Records
---
Amino acid sequence: MIGTDSPVLAVLCGDQHPPDMDSIERSATVRYTRADGLAEALRGADVLFVYDFLSTAVPDAWPAADRLRWVHIASAGVDPVMFPELRASDVVLTNSRGVFDSSIAEYVLGVVLAFAKDFAGSLRLQQECRWRHRETERIGGRTALVVGTGPIGRAIARLLRAAGMRVAGVGRRARDDDPDFGTVYPSERLTEHLPGADYVVAVAPLTEQTKGMFDSAAFAAMRPSARFVNVGRGELVVTEDLVAALRAGELAGAALDVFDTEPLPQDSPLWTMPNVLVSPHMSGDFVGWRNALVAVFADNFQRWRGGQPLRNVVDKTLGYVPSGR
């Protein structure tokens, strides 16, 4: 039975409750809520678990948070909860860094191979019952520029290197001796290094500095044979500029898992472009991912209860977890 001194945990979960919460329910008063009940659930709550990590309900409900000490979001990206009041508060913010690294890296390798081996073309021809021999590309020796050097970007770099690709990174700080990327270029010089890449992979966190970083100038800098892959945030890209660049032949294709508007509107031209692969924000979602997200929170919850340092503490001035934290 939960004692009177048990912490109060609000869980923003939408239509689906998180699994494997039994151990947490035994040591806390848990209030499960949808967005419309979040304000009420936050009154007197010590902790907020944003399980519905796509929800934008937290800023509006924030004034009701009269005792909150810690917010955890069930994703690597924290932009849905990076509003000014939370930034300015003493509330600790943590994320679920590490859960999706390998699965997103596998997705990126998969779409790189799909482009190089023209799997989409083979499927179309199969559906038309047409036998048409073609030559395809190799990925060995091709260059990938990974924009974003956090854990997901590093997992992508390691897997692409293992497949024989040459990889470089783009991040906040330039360096020449990175163990995963080799060379990391500074973000402010992105357009200088885009022309050398066969594949450009966007996995940067969404911040004021990265929002819209892939615009008409960036796409114009890419070689016409390059492919663009976005597994970061939809708002990293100016969608109209991407569509225009694809139509103008400024790049050869795009694989997009995230969009500035989700679900992707049915009238978006991206749906029907022959050189575009669309997936519904699922690059990281492997079988069992929900359980893995709860496991990360449960570990941190026990740490918080025991007065131990939390894992994955977000630097609220940067908008992500710095390396080594």
Note: The radius of gyration is 21 Å.
---
Amino acid sequence: MLHAGETPPGLEARAGDARLRFAADADELVGALPGSDVLLTWDFTSDAVKKVWHDDLARSLRWVHTASAGVDRVAFPELLAAPLTLTNSRGVFDRPIAEFVLGAVLAFAKDTARSLALQRDRTWRHRETETIAGRIATVVGSGPIGQAIAQLLAAAGLDVRLVGRRAADGVHAFDELPGLLPDSDFLVLAAPLTGATRGMLHSGTIALLPERARVINIGRGPLVVQDDLTAALASGRIAGAALDVFEVEPLPADSPLWTMENVLISPHMSGDVVGWKDMLVELFVDNLERYRTGRELRNVVDKERGYVSSSGGRA
């Protein structure tokens, strides 16, 4: 069994008799992969696996697990074509991300950023703020994270429309999205990054939003054509954005997004709450025991769709 990145807390003590090989970078990964049957990619921002992959090097692999909900860093064609199982960390981030989204909605409605700026200037300026009750939130992504967001926003009084790949009970199909945008007060992007969703928010779809709309992206940066969104924010075409993910991370220091008063920026941390790494280890250790005993693995990714499309799957 092999791990790439920093040492996950408690993994060595809980891995049983599994033989661990650690690789901190691509060079070390080249030496550690041969003969390994399991690969844990702990650093979800790393492209090391893609950089070093070739079929002979990874011939022994039977299972790859990523410590993230998104699999875009490891879902490259060669790995997807290999006879192995891919799993993710679905379920760990659902509630934390939903709380983050609700916090962003409230921050916009209650003009929190301006209050903090005025406080720093010791300026007393009375204003009226917005209520979120009855506002419309369109949440794109009907997986566990999107569902958790929808439930929490609905509990706070918003009218929520959930959008998924295809229509289902309480879920709009992705191709219905253009018709949902014109009256959306909040557009929340929680979809996996796939060929269908890459660049889904661009100048054309932004033009369908009302000027009062705020965009919240907690999915993946490339869901958005960032230059188009930046232009819309700068011109006042839409009212604001809360962005946790970006096309390039870290966000470059010269990006105009940093200085926009109507933009809230966070460094890809919407799901990272106290204890999140322990929860990631807990999930992996449970799956490792399932793998060793030939039982069904949790969070098996549908390689064609690029996300978990059912509750299980077999190694």
Note: The chain has two domains: 2-92+274-292, 94-265.
---
Amino acid sequence: MHSVAQLLKSKRETTVYTIAPTDTVLEAIKRMAERSIGALLVMEGDRVVGIVTERDYARKVILKGRASPDTPVRDIMTSSVMYVRPDTTNEQCMALMTENRLRHLPVMEGEKLVGLISIGDLVKDIISEQQFIIEQMEHYIRGER
């Protein structure tokens, strides 16, 4: 069972992409599209104040007839952001994401943002961990200790 800290160390892309609450939804969607990501953390200075996702865009802009260039991110962001600590296990993260239907979790150390993990990061890590266990069991069964 890996911790979030271990998962973050193994990620190829460690940049956490952000946006200000006063920026437009159009700017948020452009940033997500440019980087092929599904969410941006909304920051005021060093403080996480929300998260904006493609799902927010679909449900709170398109379906409500709003205009992306005229709508500030703060109007559609999710402001109650769940987060995890570096010592949280991948299994605890998976349970939290499943229970709350989340796809992204900021990683906080005290008040400081240290990373962001996605459901894809977790699935990849869990599959890798299970593959390692399978290989070890195969070696054991064949007597190749």
Note: The first helix runs from residue 4 to 10.
---
Amino acid sequence: MSSSPAVSISNLTFSHTPPGNPNAAVVALKDVSFHLSPRSITLLIGGNGAGKSTLLYILAGKRLIQHGKVDVFGKDVFKDFPPNLIYLGTEWAMNAGVRRDIVVSDFLNSVGGYRHKERRDRLLDILDIDLDWHMHAISDGERRRVQLCMGLMGEWDLLLLDEVTVDLDVLVRDSLLRFLKGETISRGATIVYATHIFDGLNDFPTHIAHMRDGYFVLNPTPWPLNPSDVADSQIIFKSGPSLHAIALHWLASDRAFRTKEEKEGRRVKTRGPRNHITSGDVDRESFYKKYIYVHQNPHMSTDTMVSQI
């Protein structure tokens, strides 16, 4: 593998149009530029809607960009897609096709498991998978383990993870993270990982980044952070440089930033309780007061109420 950047993004801006409103473009990423070196593990930190998933989708070649340049191992990800790139996201386990009555051993062989027997067997042990499981009869967490085994058993060079460890128990997750870290050390692989679970991650990333509203408040920066790398360093490092404490502070500051913009009239307030009543609100309230069972029988349980509708 060359010493050139594993990922190179320059002046990336990406917009999408919400369903049913083609004239209202939403800017999901704003002027993003950074480089990631081989062997790095970058943790993306940001609230829901910050742009993490959009960025990973673009890196995986799943979203065509309107402005900027995205290269993976020196290749334009849209014109010359690198075969050594793996994207693993949460939507896979919800696909009806992987919830059919398929034996796990047959499923893995159908996607080439027999070609990667040594790595496949190692992952079967790490992820604690039973080859006799049937895909339709296992839990979401077990199905997620099968997805990870399927995606990781080849020798990938860039791995994009989008919340894909959310269903794993703590033991399997820890074993998986150790395996992934070893891949970056022994093979020079690169990982970009978006998650909201920060426990047990202090020794995992080589870089962390802070995303807010589609832009990078902090570009990928070596971890552990130096106080000089970030604003509010005295607050962040007061309880020690833990990822959980830093993520908590950053997400709280993101919410405070949004609230300040709403009060100053630079952003329309759409979240939380509404302080004004529209005609639509009145109509809905009148309907529910008239028809919902709970108003007719305040002592009725929610389960009973739903079962009678």
Note: The first strand starts at residue 7 and ends at 16.
